[in-house]
Amino acid sequence: MIDSKFYCANTTCLPFINIITLNIKNCQFACLSQSPCKAATFHRSTSNCELFDNILNQNENMLTDVDVTSMNVISGTQFPSELTTTSTSMTSYLSATPPTTTESSSTSTTPSSSSSTSAATTTTACNVFLNQTTYAVGFQPISVAVADVNNDNKPDIVVANRNSNTVSVLLNVGSGTFNAQTTYTVGTQPYSVTVVDVNNDNKPDIIVANSGANNIGVLFNAGSGTFNAQIVYTVGSSPYSVAVVDVNGDNKSDIIISNFGSSTVGVLLNAGNGTFNAQTTYAVGSNPNSIAVVDVNSDNKPDIIVSNYYSNNVGVLLNAGSGTFHAQTTYSVGTRPYSVAVVDVNSDNKPDIIVANSGSNTTGVLLNAGNGTFSAQTSYPAGNFPWSVAVVDVNSDSKPDIIVTNSNSNDIDVLLNAGNGTFNTQIVYTVGSSPSSVAVVDVNNDNKPDIIVAESSSVAVLLHC
Prior knowledge:
This is Apple domain-containing protein. By secondary structure, the protein is mainly beta. It folds into two domains: 2-126, no CATH class; 135-462, TolB, C-terminal domain (Neuraminidase, 6 Propeller).
């Protein structure tokens, strides 16, 4: 029904989800892949796709709108996701979308589905994330990690609450739902958190960067998902990002920290039993605020990759052995790089660099050229102030995709991998206020990765359909 929208005289017609799609076909595929969807409208000027679960056979109740194409499910028939179905025409205006399990606050999201077309056969697969479910945490949650902390084979959520001076632990109770938080006091302004077993007792511990206290806190796992009080280690000024990786090959996890105020990275080698030596520092660019620790030159020694916020570059510090590092080699990126991830995105067995450029509103991809050197970045448009980046295959095509939080536009971008290390235009999911850190992990054991994001006063979970 071109140039028409639903009037719904006898039906309350509010979409249960709003999404941004590239075109009418993608709106159609989003609806076809989900059982609740009965109809959809696609707004051409905004690319907004509205999905309805309470409209059927409303053709007699239409209003003229030259910007809109409306679509009904034919005869109420719903095509299930991830099945091959036969239709008479690819141009039929059909639609359907995902069931929403929204608690607390729900907001709009943006789906995408992959499809292949051959004559009269259409295959659709669901690449949609459902409306967010939010859970209360402390004030200004700024970093999120997801790990099974109580050994029940269900990933739990750990959040650093910057202005509450706490970390929150939300235990997974099954089906991707979580208990209310348990909080633990840490240092002033915790800015980054990770969860790794540092004392070899097979229980993941919490490591937090306390940016206002200039120290690192280590909270040992006491069992059953509870944690002891933090033990602190002094580091540089304003530690902003923490990673925990064995960098000297002794089978003990070491701490690597970016000291934002000192313009250094610090390495604290594990001395055994989860205790750590004083940091060794390495000069990097101006105000490093994100680090990743990955072997980028295939020598079986993890290297340090850091985003240098005010230098507008990323630095690569190759591991020289025994937990020491060479001086950084820098690569220009966009303005104000805020977050970095290192993952092989083009299937050449060489890890690539992905960076969120908060000042230029882009996501940058630097392909590994071999021996730990990198090509110039290719940039992709993002939302307003891209803050955090994760790289995970979200559509089961064995190609890692990019997920980015946009703090000032209150949304998340998903850039599906198009192959050879290139990416499609972002799909946008609206979330809560000021999304910062993002993790992408299967939290409901359906073998599909879900999105977990820290917002201004909550943590949100967007389950994969």
